[in-house]
Amino acid sequence: QVKLVESGGGLVQAGGSLRLSCAASGLTLTFSYYHMGWFRQAPGKEREFVAAISRYGANTYYADSVKGRFTISRDNVKNTVYLQMNSLKPEDTAVYYCASRGAVTSGSFYSEAPYEYWGQGTQVTVSS
Questions:
Q1: Neighbours of 128 (CB within 10 A)
Q2: Kind of pairing, strands 60-62 and 117-118?
Q3: Residue 106 falls in which region: left (phi positive, over 0), alpha (psi -120 to 50) or beta
Q4: What is the pLDDT of residues 84-122, one digit of tens each?
């Protein structure tokens, strides 16, 4: 059974930092086979892309709204992907989800559709 478990969310003041983690288990193939992504959903809004990282970490992708503030990384030994979030803003408040997609799955890294497995999400709240 595939499980993606996010952690590290919480309440932080604007300008602060948080580091989210997503631990994967039960994947059919080795963790390094999968590209990983982070998405978020704010209250009353659709889920949106935040960041993605290729299977070995060579390529990263970011939404314009987080570029320069957030950094995605991964540890293929620990089967974990991270999202370092700095200079947080109230508009970053959302539930953050990690997701995985197979290396040969076609489609944009920025789109939800190619991602096969999803975590349950972790709440990030940024106060002004």
A1: 9
A2: unpaired
A3: beta
A4: 999 999 999 999 999 999 988 888 999 999 999 999 999
